[in-house]
């Protein structure tokens, strides 16, 4: 895999895919602008900037930084990436690539790298807006935050790869991505932060990848090492989703 990543063919594919990605203002907006803009909009609500009883010692704007980060990940990996990959398959591009030095796996790797990096850029923007606009403290357990974020990215990309595997066409990928997006965003806490959910519902959400991600990022932001149970849930989902994507993915 490392040889593939360093090959001239893979580098050429990555450069070409990056050029195409830059020409998609819709993807750039929804991945890199929308999550931070939504976070800024919610943060402008006065009640979001006040410490309430539902989350002792925290404001809602503090809690919504991880949610904005997870929104960017889901936008990139569920809404943007699968239609591109399935579109390549649908038009026979992957099949034709299989007869050249540029292997289809290079396209998949390039797409995952581009969308993962775009989501991370959005994550940095959300953290900076939180810090300099709403005085949200930077993550106190920085290394733990990086570990939780890395596992969150892996889980999101694995889910996106699975959707790409099971979708026959780009239209199907859009439909499946939309169907998966809203439950995942609910589990991440967009409509109701996991910390404010009833105990039974919160425990259920923590078994899902993005519910666990929201909790792990929140714990690291507060200065604690993320719970091993939350990190374990993220790691387990990453392995299961990757295995399923590998099992069902077809180049034609």
UniProtKB/TrEMBL annotation:
PROSITE patterns (UniProt xref): ABC_TM2
The ABC transmembrane type-2 domain, residue ranges: 26-252
Cellular localization per UniProt: Cell membrane; Membrane
Domain of life: Bacteria
One GO-annotated biological process of the protein: response to antibiotic
Alphabetically ordered keywords of this record: Antibiotic resistance, Cell membrane, Membrane, Transmembrane, Transmembrane helix, Transport
GO MF terms held by the record: ABC-type transporter activity
GO cellular component: ATP-binding cassette (ABC) transporter complex
Membrane topology, from the record: Multi-pass membrane protein
Signal peptide: none
Similarity comment text for this entry: Belongs to the ABC-2 integral membrane protein family.
Protein name as it appears in the record: Transport permease protein
Organism of this sequence: Streptomyces mesophilus
Lineage: Bacteria, Bacillati, Actinomycetota, Actinomycetes, Kitasatosporales
């Amino acid at each position: 895999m490392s040889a593939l990543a360093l090959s001239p063919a893979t580098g050429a594919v990555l450069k070409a895919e990056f050029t195409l990605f830059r020409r998609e203002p819709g993807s750039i907006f929804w991945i890199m602008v929308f999550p931070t803009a939504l976070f800024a909009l919610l943060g402008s609500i006065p009640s979001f900037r006040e410490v309430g009883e539902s989350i002792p010692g925290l404001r809602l704007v503090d809690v919504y930084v991880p949610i904005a980060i997870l929104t960017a990940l889901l936008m990139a990996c569920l809404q943007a990436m699968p239609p591109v990959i399935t579109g390549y398959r649908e038009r026979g591009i992957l099949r034709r690539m299989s007869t050249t030095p540029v292997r289809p796996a290079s396209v998949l790797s390039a797409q995952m790298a581009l969308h993962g990096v775009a989501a991370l850029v959005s994550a940095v923007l959300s953290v900076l807006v939180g810090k300099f606009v709403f005085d949200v403290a930077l993550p106190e357990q920085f290394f733990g935050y990086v570990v939780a974020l890395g596992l969150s990215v892996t889980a999101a990309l694995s889910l996106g790869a699975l959707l790409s595997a099971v979708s026959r066409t780009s239209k199907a990928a859009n439909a499946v991505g939309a169907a998966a997006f809203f439950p995942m965003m609910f589990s991440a806490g967009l409509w109701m932060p996991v910390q404010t959910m009833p105990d039974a519902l919160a425990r259920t959400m923590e078994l899902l990848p993005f519910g666990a991600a929201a909790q792990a990022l929140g714990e690291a932001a507060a200065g604690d090492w993320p719970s091993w149970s939350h990190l374990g849930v993220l790691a387990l989902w990453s392995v299961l989703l990757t295995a399923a994507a590998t099992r069902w993915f077809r180049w034609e």
